[in-house]
Design goal:
By secondary structure, the chain is of the alpha/beta class. It is about 20% helix and about 30% strand. The strands form three sheets. Strands 1, 2, 3, 4, 5, 6, 7, 8 and 21 form a nine-stranded mixed beta sheet that branches. The chain has a six-stranded antiparallel beta sheet with strand order 10-9-20-17-12-13, with no helix packed on it.
């Protein structure tokens, strides 16, 4: 019987869910999607070939690294394709920029690093998501295996021996409209210009404050080891379902103390935008929701946690920076 590990408590607790057709014996019935990234070298070749010539002349060592990373990524895709085909599984391969919501798939494999997985996760609701790190230069916190170990790993998954962990995600609402992007790491409310001042009113648990700052982070437990931690936030246990918020570089005027500059909330964080040109950034820079004066933002827990394959590691302790 396959196991799903839920992160609704501080310990991963096994949840029996009966037979799981997503990965039971008949591999021919497994609906599988593989989403891969293109290397920087390939992207430059396709869109900016002249830039490659300039890099080759000015920074040949940088070009050499691009070539090495490209070969690594290409080999990873070939390895994964070979291992899948050798098991008689019919899989669809798609480039990450061209895939759509994979509702009809049981397992989605992300080939790249955390950036690729975050992008893919925005399109996954209930399917299992497996991250495969394609390069030694890629950060793979959410990746359960490397391409070189994929064959053994996928075999264990098909046998039901790899845990599926449910990670809390966030949902953004702007002026009462729910935005269709499940957020795995964090949301950032800020001025569109990094040097601009963000003005807003933040409301948490019925208490409100008006702020001027560089913006406000709102993070899941899964995202607490990333940007919000670098900004001074707190590392959370992977099973914590609360939302952590943190104000970036608050401007203190009039000697008034802030009480809503950092904290945790079970329900939601609300903000009233008082900036003419602001944005809500979801899991980085690729998803940006334009905001203006008077827009109301609400960040809550998404109803669909992410079913991520093999995520059983704990965050590094604060002493291991």
């Amino acid at each position: 019987m396959p196991k799903i590990f839920t992160t609704s408590s501080c310990q991963f607790a096994a949840l029996a869910i009966g037979s799981d057709t997503r990965r039971m014996g008949a591999t021919g019935s497994l609906r599988l999607l593989v989403v891969y990234k293109k290397s920087q070298l390939m992207l430059y070749r396709e869109h900016q070939p002249e830039t490659l010539k300039e890099i080759s002349a000015r920074e040949p060592e940088l070009l050499t690294k691009f070539i090495e990373a490209h070969e690594e990524n290409s080999q990873a895709i070939r390895t994964i394709r070979t291992e899948i085909e050798s098991r008689g599984i019919d899989a669809t391969f798609r480039y990450r920029a061209s895939h759509q919501r994979p509702d009809r798939y049981d397992l989605v494999i992300s080939v790249g690093g955390d950036g690729t997985l975050l992008d893919v996760a925005h399109h996954v609701l209930d399917a299992h998501l497996l991250g495969v790190n394609s390069s030694k230069n890629s950060i793979g916190h959410f990746c359960a295996t490397k391409a070189s170990q994929f064959g053994e790993f996928i075999e264990q998954y098909l046998q039901g021996d790899i845990p599926i962990v449910q990670l809390t995600r966030l949902q953004a609402h702007v002026n009462g409209e729910t935005r269709d992007v499940p957020v795995l790491n964090e949301a950032l409310l800020a001025h569109v210009d990094p040097g601009g001042v963000s003005r807003y009113v933040i409301r948490v648990d019925g208490q409100a404050e008006e702020h001027k700052s560089s913006g406000v982070w709102m993070s899941t437990a899964a995202g607490s080891s990333g940007a919000i931690r670098s900004a001074g936030g707190t590392l959370m246990d992977a099973g914590d379902t609360r939302i952590q918020y943190l104000v970036r570089e608050p401007y203190r005027w009039g000697g008034l103390p802030f009480t809503l500059n950092h904290g945790f909330v079970q329900s939601e964080v609300e903000c009233l935008c008082k900036t003419r040109t602001a944005a809500l950034f979801l899991d980085g820079h690729r998803v940006k929701l334009p905001l203006s004066l008077g827009d109301r933002i609400r960040i809550s827990r998404h109803p669909h946690p992410l079913n991520i394959v093999g995520y059983n590691r704990q965050h590094p302790s604060s002493e291991e920076d």
